[in-house]
TrEMBL record:
Gene Ontology cellular-component terms listed: ATP-binding cassette (ABC) transporter complex
Molecular function terms, GO-annotated: ATP binding; ATP hydrolysis activity; ATPase-coupled transmembrane transporter activity
Keywords (A to Z) from UniProt: ATP-binding, Cell membrane, Membrane, Nucleotide-binding, Translocase, Transport
InterPro entries: AAA+_ATPase, ABC_transporter-like_ATP-bd, ABC_transporter-like_CS, ABC_transpr_CbiO/EcfA_su, ECF_ABC_transporter_ATP-bd, P-loop_NTPase
The protein's role, per its UniProt record: Probably part of an ABC transporter complex. Responsible for energy coupling to the transport system.
PROSITE patterns linked: ABC_TRANSPORTER_1, ABC_TRANSPORTER_2
Subcellular location: Cell membrane
Lineage: Archaea, Methanobacteriati, Methanobacteriota, Stenosarchaea group, Methanomicrobia
Family the UniProt entry places it in: Belongs to the ABC transporter superfamily.
Protein name stated in the entry: Energy-coupling factor transport system ATP-binding protein
Stored CDD domains: ABC_cobalt_CbiO_domain1
Annotated source species: Methanolobus profundi
SUPFAM superfamilies: P-loop containing nucleoside triphosphate hydrolases
């Protein structure tokens, strides 16, 4: 099963002088178990697209289905959980526990099972369970983001959709969030990340989709991305391209430091062997 978007178009303020077309005939597919990265410039339609995945926005033309269910079905939010671009807006409880438990308790989960759900979700989001008694509004911006993430995870969605999850986080929290997302993905959850920091997520992604002014300008694997898109590219890929220009026999589709290290060592060994002959 998958998220299927077919010929989706969407205008804000339709029929008024302020009409703004945000999505223009978008078609794409996000497979179950995939880690999909959605990039594109400011205002290209990324948030508008993912707000369709859990039914916050309804297609004006075209369709969106999640595991076969129309995104207009109320229950779609149990399949696709969205961490919004400004997750502070998602918080409302007097305590973190109240906030994180809201979704599952509405779903009829109570007592020990509810406590366990909340504890598991806080742990998955990288927060201790001690935080449960605090007011979410007494936390830092980064912690609020993680509490909102825990609230989404407490619903145990099939698809976890995150809109700019690392913006405003310090480097330490960024890398711990990346590690959390990697683990969640390995545990079987499908992950969709919207980010301006495409390079940061490239090594984790199975698929990259770029939006440009409301239409899909690129849809391919990370390797296809670094081969066909000129920017932004990871520093490590740029280094490999520089080495190729200097005559080194290395690949140009490297995404991680570990792979670059292996590739450079092999190239140096080949050079050494060539000089010995
Ligand atoms: N509530 C709204 N009312 C009117 N126009 C809107 C609204 N939300 C978004 N838009 C417009 O729709 C277009 C797409 O916006 P969207 O928020 O989807 O872009 P985005 O790619 O998520 O941008 P960003 O990278 O800044 O988050 C933009 O031109 C934006 O100005
Ligand atoms: Mg956005």
């Amino acid at each position: 099963m998958s998220i299927e978007v077919k010929d989706l178009s969407f205008c804000y303020n339709r029929g008024t002088s302020l009409e703004k077309r945000a999505l223009d005939n978008v078609s794409l597919s996000i497979g179950k178990g995939e880690f999909v990265l959605i990039g594109g410039e400011i205002g290209s339609g990324k948030s508008t697209l993912v707000r369709h995945f859990n039914g916050i926005l309804k297609p004006q033309s075209g369709s969106v289905t999640v595991s076969g269910m129309a995104s207009t079905d109320r229950d779609v939010r149990h399949k696709a959980g969205l961490l919004m671009q400004y997750p502070q807006k998602q918080l409302f409880g007097r305590t973190v526990f109240e906030d994180v438990s809201f979704g599952p308790s509405n779903f009829g989960i109570k007592g020990d099972a509810l406590e366990q759900r909340v504890a598991d979700a806080l742990e998955q989001a990288g927060l201790g369970r001690d935080i449960g008694s605090l007011s979410p509004f007494s936390l830092s911006g980064g912690q609020m983001r993680l509490v909102a993430l825990a609230g989404v995870l407490a619903m145990q969605p099939e698809y976890l959709i995150l809109d700019e999850p690392t913006s405003g986080l310090d480097p330490e929290n960024r890398s711990s969030l990346l590690a959390t997302l990697k683990e969640l993905h390995l545990s079987g959850i499908s992950v969709v990340v919207v980010s301006h920091q495409v390079c940061e997520f490239l090594p984790l992604a199975d698929k990259v989709i770029l939006l440009d002014n409301g239409w899909v300008s690129f849809n391919g694997t990370p390797v296809e991305y670094v081969r066909s898109v000129s920017s932004p590219l990871p520093e490590i890929t740029l280094l490999m391209k520089d080495l190729i220009r200097e005559g080194f026999d290395v690949r140009d589709d490297i995404l991680s430091i570990d792979d670059a290290f292996e590739e450079i060592v092999n190239a140096l060994e080949k050079r050494g062997a060539g000089q010995d002959e």
